[in-house]
Amino acid sequence: MIASGGRPPLLILVLATAIGGISMNIFIPSMPGLVRYFATDIATVQLTLTLYLAGIAAGQLVYGPLSDHYGRRRLMLAGLGLYAASALVASLAQSIDILILGRIAQALGGCAGIVITRAIIRDVYDRDRGASVLGYVTMAMTIAPAMAPVIGGYLDHWVGWRAGLWVLTAYGALLFVGCIFYLPETLKEPQPTIGFGAVLRSYRVLLKRSAFVGYAVGTGFSTSCFFSFLAGAPYLMIEVLDRPPSDYGIWFVIVSFGYFIGNFLSGKLSRRFGVERMVAVGTAMVLFGALAMLTHALTQPLAPVGIFAPAMFVAMGNGVGQPNGIAGAISIDPTRAGAASGVVGFLQMALGALGTVAVGHTLGTALLPMALIITGFSVASASFFVLGTTRPRGLQGPADR
Question: Is the dihedral of CA 169, 175, 181, 186 positive or negative?
């Protein structure tokens, strides 16, 4: 057992943060083929993504405040254990219903890595430094999610859809073992009480702060732009344009490259320019990408470049804005960093799931419905970030200054 105190290795934080993105992206290229494999429809198969995101959203509301009381390490190990076991169950599924249930349980376990890593970073760094570290962590972990669709596409082609879930089972098990030996406890001042009432009080305190609402909801809508793209792009690419899953993975690399560059800029510049300015730049990038996609949809025939090039700017804007939006939100009240991280994560996944549902029910064979949805979310994101970053100075508390 590792002793309490100290900063955890960067690699552990990267792998724990990446678990949600890898689990989603490695599976996406297999989704269109599941319609034929299970003799079902695309809306049902879409639930393997939509309910996965819903599971990640709901789980973070639980892990966040519990980690404020019981500590980061214990909750991380519990979540990773559930993740590995449920990934194995999903890989053995003989029906679409069991697969969906396995993916939900996998999400409920894997979200521990996302929410608790953010709280750990807030435990050991101040706000602007935390945004920089979070940017670097996210930048480093983008490599695996960037390659995940490529790997998933080839695994699906050569082995079958179960192979990706076997890889995720091994990933979760190895990370669980790594945390046993290398993850210290970073929570120095646990919340004295826990229970349903205490959890609700934490959320009520946070949601009364307009700055927190602005950062948290703005980050959620920005994330939903990206998830809306993930819901529609595979179908347009594989089914409408009749491209193989491996082609989707190759085109997706440019989107991941944009996300990588955005996080690099966040890590490099956040301490110099501060959270507010970086959020503004990231929001502008997302809005530009959304409008570029909408323009292409209105004026050009469907083509991969019209899908993926604008999405690169959406992803880049998320890379710049998300670490800073998250750092701003979880710094509003440092004593409730876990709860704040849970709310931010919940909104990211819940609004992302909303985007996948909207795209899944409106997409058809054209780019326009997805482009309209992404544009709408980008405008909502900008509106809430304005609330979070231009509030009157008198409304700020000690944690904001």
Answer: negative
Q: What residue has token string 């996406």?
A: 28
> How many residues does the structure list for the chain?
401
Sign of CA dihedral 377, 132, 111, 42: positive
Four-residue CA torsion sign, 297, 303, 309, 314: positive
User: Which residue positions in the chain have pLDDT lower than 50?
Assistant: 1, 3, 392-401
Q: Which two tokens stand for residue 401?
A: 């200054």
Phi and psi angles of residue 185, each rounded to the nearest 5 degrees, phi first: -85, 125
Rounded CA separation 218/325 (Å) = 8
Interatomic CA distance for residues 134 and 146, integer angstroms:
18
The total of other beta-carbon atoms located within 10 Å of residue 361's CB is 11
As a whole number of Å, the end-to-end CA separation of the chain is: 38
Residue the block writes with tokens 């953010």: 118
**What pLDDT shows up at residue 381?**
94
Classify 195 as helix, strand or coil.
coil
DSSP 158-192: HT-THHHHHHHHHHHHHHHHHHHHH-----SS--S
Q: Give the distance between the most distant pair of CA atoms in the chain.
A: 61
Provide CATH code, domain 10-184+192-392.
Answer: 1.20.1250.20
Q: Where are the domains of the chain?
A: 10-184+192-392
Tokens in use for 99? 């697969």
The pTM score is 0.71
